[in-house]
Design goal:
Strand order of the largest sheet: 2-1-5
Strand content: 5-15%
Organism: Streptomyces bullii
Structural class: mainly alpha
Number of strands: 5
Order of helices and strands: HHHHEEEEE
Protein name: TniQ protein
Largest sheet: 3 strands, antiparallel
Oligomer: single chain
Helix content: 25-40%
Shape: globular
Length: about 130
């Protein structure tokens, strides 16, 4: 796994990792690692020393093989259909929430009713785009 992808997994898992690090006495080392990541320094060796590299690798989302196609389009072309009672003035936002510092590849789909996703590494909301 490359660094940008690894940092995305780290960001997503950071609340749980902080809990574990505090319980094992590695809280200070984890915070030092995070500070280094914020500065753009390489952190893979530090993750390995803390025993987190393999753990994060198991938490990484797995991609389907490149030859797997998505679901087939529904009959009739699969375009958007207006909902009853909607006058057409609304719009659909296309995009994902991404790292505010462009440090990692974390990407979250917007979901109605969810809070704005936060970047645990930088302590800021993810940016939409």
């Amino acid at each position: 796994m490359e660094t940008a992808e690894l940092l995305g997994v780290l960001c997503r898992a950071l609340p749980e990792l902080r809990t574990v690090a505090e319980e094992t006495g590695d809280g200070t080392a984890l915070e030092e690692l995070l500070a280094a990541a914020r500065r753009g320094e390489p952190v893979i060796d530090r993750l390995r020393q803390l025993g987190l590299l393999e753990l994060l690798d198991t938490w990484a989302p797995r991609r389907p093989p490149a030859d797997v196609r998505g679901p087939a389009s529904p009959p009739g072309g699969g375009g958007l259909v207006a909902l009853p009672g909607v006058d057409g003035s609304g719009h659909v936002a296309h995009g994902r929430y991404r790292c505010p510092a462009r440090t990692c590849r974390r990407a979250e789909l917007p979901r109605p009713g969810d809070d704005l996703p936060m970047c645990a590494l930088h302590g800021r909301p993810l940016r939409f785009g």
